[in-house]
Design a protein that fits this description.
Length: about 150
């Protein structure tokens, strides 16, 4: 079961407030950095993760199971069918370091909206909501980590 840190849960509110005041530290940056450090320190090297990606470009929500062994992705399969994710879709379903990279890239690009919440135990992103361009609706995406199970 994943728990959310109350401070981290407010990252989107703090991030939008930080956009108008550049005189102090960026709270969203601090939260991201702390979560990444927690993952690097506590995150398992081998894990199975079920990731849901939602966007307007898809008719239905799709869950993908990502298997990572010794920090290397060994498989990505559609959870419902067990079919492998095609090579053209692999980048749509990142592992945990890929989710952190997605948040980092979004923060660097100054999106219209970015919200990220992080797991209390390992620090990995458990939900990322992203809108890069306010004039388009087809770029809105939500990633949700439904499950992350360490493998020994």
């Amino acid at each position: 079961m994943m728990a959310r840190l109350p401070l981290l849960f407010s990252a989107s509110i703090l991030a939008s407030a930080a956009c108008s005041d550049t005189s102090g530290p960026n709270p969203a940056e601090q939260i991201y950095t702390a979560a990444l450090a927690q993952w690097n320190e506590s995150g398992p090297a081998s894990y199975d993760m079920v990731l849901k990606r939602q966007c307007i470009c898809q008719v239905s929500e799709i869950d993908v199971t990502i298997q990572v062994r010794n920090r290397v992705v060994v498989s990505r399969t559609f959870t419902a069918s067990g079919d492998p994710v095609g090579s053209g879709q692999v980048s749509l379903y990142p592992d945990v370091p890929g989710l952190f990279a997605l948040v980092r890239a979004a923060m660097d690009d100054d999106p219209v909206f970015l919200s990220a919440t992080y797991d209390q135990t390992y620090g990995h992103p458990i939900e990322i909501q992203l809108d890069l361009d306010g004039s388009r609706s087809d770029d809105n995406v939500v990633y949700t980590t439904l499950q992350l199970t360490p493998v020994t």
